[in-house]
Amino acid sequence: MSVATRHPARFPVIGGWLGTLTSTDHKRMGLTLGVCSLFFFLLGGVFALLMRTQLAQSNMHFVSDNSYNELFTMHGSTMIYLFVTPMAIAMSLYLVPLQIGATRISAPRLCLAGMWTWICGGLVMQQGWFASGGAGRAGWSSYAPQSNGINTPGVGMDLWVIGVILAATGMLVMGGCVVATIARRRAPGMSLLRMPLYTWTALVSVLMVVGSFPMLVLVMVLLYIDRHGGRIFTGFEGSIDYQDLFWFFGHPVVYVMFFPYLGAAAEAIAVSAHKRWFGYLAFVASMMMFAALSMSVWSHHMYVTGGVTNQYFAFTSTLLLVPAGIEYFDMIGTLIGGAIVLRTSMLFGLTFFIQFLIGGLSGIFVASPVLDYHAYGTYIVVAHFHYTLFAGSIFGFFAGVYHWFPKVTGALLREGLGKLHLALMAVGTNLTFFPMFFLGNDGMPRRVSRYPTHPGWGTLNELETIGAGIIAIGVLVFLFNVWTSLRRRVPAGDDPWLGHTLEWATTSPPPPLNFEAPLPPIRSYAPLLDLREEELDRARERAEVTVGG
Amino acid sequence: MPIAIGVFVVILLVVLGAVLVYRRRPPERAARWHENDRVEGTYAVLLASTAAFLLYLTFTAEHRVDTLANRERPAVIIDVTGSKWEWTFTYPGYGFSVRSGTVGRQPLVVPAGEAVRFQVTSTDVIHSFWIPALRYKHDAIPGSVQITTLSFSRGVFAGQCAEFCGLRHSDMVFTARAVSPAAFAAWARGRGSGPTP
After folding, report:
1. pLDDT tens-digit profile of B4-60?
2. In whole angstroms, how far apart are CA A514 and each of A11, A107, A504?
3. Looking at the domain assignment, is residue A13 inside a domain?
4. How many domains does chain A have?
5. What is the crossing angle of helices A155-184 and A85-99, to 10°?
6. Is B19 an interface residue toward A (CB < 8 Å)?
7. Can you tell me the distance from the alpha carbon of A402 to that of A421, in angstroms, rounded to the nearest whole number?
8. N or C, which end of chain B has less CB nearby within 10 Å?
């Protein structure tokens, strides 16, 4: 195909570190962003382990109160601003152009600038650890007036605010590049309703980035001014305004951190079931409904403030069960009648759906104001969002890693280690997060470094700490798997899984301009499956002719 | 709650069943159907009705908790003031206060079985007035006084700040004692100085 080779000279391939730092190839930017995000994931994980150690017993003095406040703030901020969201964007940067048959991303230099802005943001935020008084310590949501200059003074908190501004701006820019790529660079024949599932989930999530991240940048700039004498978020209205503005970003971002991983799990499941995804149109429609609703549920974080119309937000929040139910239906519809291979990516994909269900069903409870009057601010909420973000999104992320690793590196990950990784993660996750429902219901608030000796609380907290340790071992197994699979490579070939979408129609790893051979015809959201089915039909016809003749 | 567990179990079983039944077949045998408008449509309607039913339950309950409760004539009014890191409970009808948190250890005493109106506010940052056993909390926000009416059965209840408020948030705890109205009246008339009933 001519588009694939039009401007080869404009894209000299620079190797090594310099190339990594300056390349405008979407695949290399995606990888750099992904590797940096993974580094922050490990860092955030260390924070979590320190917190769980402090909480293992009721009145531990492993870290001070102040350090604990820094830890939970930086754990949440690192995971949300520096891992789950940017990792979603990293996967989109890498995969979307390949899936829609594009040779490159739109506005690649802008995208590179966005990536560096984000990296600077991450580094600035973490520098808070070296500031006197410590890093940001007002929670990842940093409610005013707790986060103002009087209640949380110090350079560390300022660095946190600036770090969030930079990281959010960077992600906004990169998200915009992905939107533009989908709008402008689809291959001939790739209509919107022929885009692969993953691309749809990526599109919806970057649209939400574009829609909601400007609000985060705005609210953080206002907070910075407020911290330096601006008096913006004062009094009742100021407190409520901050929360309204923050959650107008803060709820959509939850779905930004969910959709692409849902897409990854869906692709892994469809490919491993050797069957095209069931109910594609309903799935796309449910994505749209999800996105629209998730931009209109933000104040369900504020039921107990007495400052919002609870009924409206209960209405929109409860309606979310409709698109969520459709996804599950489609997933089951895909499995039924398939030819299922239980490889690691498939298992991670299925575990994603099952565990996310616990997060989703508990979400229906906290969507109701009267139930949330109890659950708000407790470990019930902590359990709920870790079941969506960790037991959900992270498992979807690993489904994507095992699914696309061969494409990205040309080598297969070890299946045995992969399944061990899954088993450790699944056991650790449920051991860590399930007891939190009981603790929260029993009256343990979140963000406390110590808790009273209460019958049962010690045991449950100890179990959680053990679970966190098991998760950590699982992550180490994963890192070892990556290391050993890259050192002693088992070549993957172009299409090890019988993939459905265009990225499997090129080499592994793909060449700088993605496709060297002509693209196959695109007649549905699974063009490679179309080809195989046609091939099969022709073979059957030939067989019939031979038998009949 | 039982519904949620039921939904979880059903989906888990269906997924496991599907995986077991359709495992290890050659890829050529995979079915090609991938749409069924009627089934999907029916299912969407079912989901929407579930949402409507849940909302009906929620709205009814919220009306009871937020609107009807506050219409009741309270037997006693208590001002609740959160400040770092102390709860101050003032009884305006009797003209005295008790404090609990990092400094004070005095319990909040209320008459059991009667409507108690709390007027909740804060002097510095957002706190949240939470009594887990009542399954109810309300934010204490500087610059506003928010009214909420609760009623207690007899007993001793733990209470705690549920909105992160800085260094010693963990220690912003109190105890609520619900005693008979007569015992409460005697305690309050002694301006809270007598032994806690």
Report:
1. 787 888 888 888 888 888 887 787 778 888 878 888 888 888 888 888 888 888 888
2. 12, 17, 11
3. no
4. 1
5. 20
6. yes
7. 11
8. N
- Summarised one tens digit per residue, pLDDT across range B137-167 is 999 999 999 999 999 999 999 999 999 999 9
Task: Provide the CATH number for the domain around residue A306.
Answer: 1.20.210.10
Closest to B152 in 3D by CA, of B174, B130, B173, B134: B134
pTM above 0.90, yes or no: yes
**pLDDT score, position A5:** 45
* Joined tokens for residue B47: 């989901």
- Is A411 contained in some domain? yes
Tell whether A519 is covered by a domain.
yes
CA distance A267 to chain B (A): 14
To probe the interface with A, which of B35, B68, B125 has the most A CB atoms within 10 Å?
A: B125
Query: d(Cα A122, Cα A377) in Å, to the nearest integer?
Result: 27
Q: Do B40 and A326 touch (CB under 8 A)?
A: yes
Domain boundaries, chain B: 39-71, 76-189
Beta bridge partners of residue B90, listed in sequence order: B79, B97
The complex scores an ipTM of: 0.90
**Residue-range definition of the domain harbouring residue A105:** 24-548
Q: Which residues pair with B89 in a beta bridge?
A: B80, B98
In this structure, are residues A472 and A49 in contact, taking their beta carbons and an 8 Å threshold? yes
Share of chain A above pLDDT 90, in %: 79
Would A16 be classed as within a structural domain? no
C-beta neighbour count of B136 within 10 angstroms: 18
Query: Nearest Cβ partner of A445 from B65, B136, B162?
Result: B162
Please name the CATH architecture into which domain B76-189 falls.
Sandwich (2.60)
DSSP category for residue B1: -
Average pLDDT for B162-189 = 93
Chain A residue whose CA is closest to B31? A337
Instruction: With CB atoms and an 8 Å threshold, state whether A340 touches B47.
Output: no
From A199, A131, A124, select the one nearest A165 (Cα to Cα): A124
Do A151 and B124 lie within an 8 Å CB cutoff? Answer: yes
